[in-house]
Design goal:
Number of strands: 2
Order of helices and strands: HEE
Shape: flat
Structural class: alpha+beta
Length: 44
């Protein structure tokens, strides 16, 4: 799930939104124990 909005006072929750907007390709993998790995590619 990607947050689509936040208030100016929120301390977090914009990381995946930034990845989605700036990366050319990205994805996420589920790991053990609830951990996730997010990967991304930026083409210059």
């Amino acid at each position: 799930m990607i947050p689509t909005h936040g208030s100016a006072w929120d301390e977090g929750g914009r990381g995946l939104l930034m990845v989605r907007e700036l990366a050319d390709r990205w994805g996420a993998l589920r790991g053990e124990g609830g951990c996730h790995t997010v990967w991304f590619e930026v083409v210059r």
